[in-house]
Amino acid sequence: MALTDEMIQLLSAGVAHQVGGCTNDGRPVVCRGLAAQHEAGRLLVIISAESGFEVLDAIRQNGRIAVNVTLPENYRSLSFIGDDAVVRGSGAAWRPLVNERHRAFSDQLLRYGIPPEYTNAWYSADDEHLVALRFTPTQARNQTPGPGAGNAVKLIPIEFEK
Asked: Which of 18, 19, 44, 66 is the most exposed place for a label (fewest CB within 10 A)?
C-alpha cells in the first residue's frame, strides 16, 4: 500500500517521529525517529542506532513496526503500521534528509517560542549511527486528538513488480 499525497506532504511538514516495535516475547520498544519519507510504496524511516538499539533488535526479530508522526502546529497525527520492516543501510548518506527534517521540525517549534537548541540533541546523532528502516505500510490510523482518533485511514493499493 502507498501513502496518499496528503500523507507524503505531512512527512516533510515538520513532524515529530516516534518509532515502535515489539520483541518476539511481546515487549514493546520505542525510540525517537529523525526523518521519514515515502519511496515507491514503502516508508523510509531514519533513527539513531545509539538511542534506537532496542527498536532495531525488535525489527530484526520480526519486522513489525509502527511509526507515528505528529505536526506540532495542529497535532495532526498519523500512525503507519507494517510487518515487513528491514534494517537497510547506515551512515552519512542519511544526513541531508535528517538535517532537512530537523529544520522543518525546528521551524514548527520556533513558532511557539521553542528555540532550535531544544531539538539539537535529538538530531545530533553521529553519522555512523544513522540507520534506515524500510517497510510497506499495511495500515494507517488517524491519531489526531478528537473524535476520529484511532480510525483507519485509507492507503493507496500499489502493485510491485515481481
From this structure: 18
